Amino acid sequence: MTEINTGHTPVLLEEVLAALEPSPGETYVDATAGRGGHACAVARRMERGRVVLFDRDGNNLAFAQSRVQIAAPECEVIALHRDFRFAESECRARGIVADMFLADLGVSSNQLDVAERGFGLQQDGPLDMRLDPSTPQSATDLIRDLSETELADVIFHLGEDPYARRIARKVVQSRAGEPIITTAHLARLVCEAYGSRARASRLHPATRTFMALRIAVNDELGALGDLLKSVASAARSHGGGWLNGKARVAVISFHSLEDRQVKRMFAALADDQVVQRRTRKPEVASDTEVAANPRARSARLRSLSLISHHLDL
């Protein structure tokens, strides 16, 4: 399948394969299957084995499952429509022990590019931003229900926008007159809050606000924290859990809030001598990859291997 009909180009693909080192007969767990790009490449290297796919987006999950089954027909493919924070419990319930684990924390290109999903700034659409459309709270709900202080805190802490207070004030003033239910309406309000600064902004002025709302709607940092705790628990138990005692783990982050969590947890596990870091510094996309896929520019890959026994044994 080409990128045109898959709707997404997997980032740092060769770096992921080098970090995970797939071998025939192994079990691979993909926490964010998306359109199946990474999973297909891993499955082809495995030839046979088990591929476990998680995703909150049911349509993407079904697409990825079919794509992997076609790419590696001798692999068993298990698709789970769940948040990756439940990866450990779901694997334990099924007796699955992963040899490889990947979490690509980015939003799929097809989600960004479909106006109806409400993630992007390029087209007007409903202000939604839910990774799982069946969950109850959308970005429209947050914009409607949060107080000015709460909204400013979301934009400042999750979007790291220095004009968060101005933006929140503008939104609250505007919603008193009419509901804010479209991406174009919110983007326009953010630009107005920026004022003359909007012309000097390298990014679209609403980029950080949109990111903050998406993170809040989907509790992305909370889910990542739960996932990292599961990885840490498996590492400190030296195998016997949902990760093999020598499992390879890789995480791709796209902004500093995510990468900071991953960096700190990986460093703590390395200090405890229960993992071996495969990348001390994050791997980033080459100039060639960024030219072909500009969304790879902010990707950061960190990886490690679990250590099955204490070093002094």
Q: What features would you highlight for this structure?
A:
single chain; 313 residues; alpha/beta; Rossmann fold; DNA polymerase, domain 1; 2 domains; seven-stranded mixed β-sheet; 14 helices; globular
Please tell me about this protein's structure.
This protein is an alpha/beta fold. It has two domains: 3-110 and 220-306, 3-Layer(aba) Sandwich (Rossmann fold), CATH 3.40.50; 115-218, DNA polymerase, domain 1 (Orthogonal Bundle), CATH 1.10.150. The chain contains 14 helices and seven strands. It has helices at residues 3-6, 13-20, 37-46, 58-71, 87-94, 109-113, 139-145, 148-159, 164-175, 183-194, 207-218, 220-236, 256-271, 287-292; strands at residues 27-30, 49-54, 75-80, 98-104, 243-253, 275-277, 300-306. It has a seven-stranded mixed sheet, with helices on both faces. Helix 3 links the parallel strand 1 (27-30) and strand 2 (49-54). Helix 9 (164-175) packs across helix 10. The longest helix has 17 residues, at 220-236. The model has no long low-confidence stretch (mean pLDDT 90).
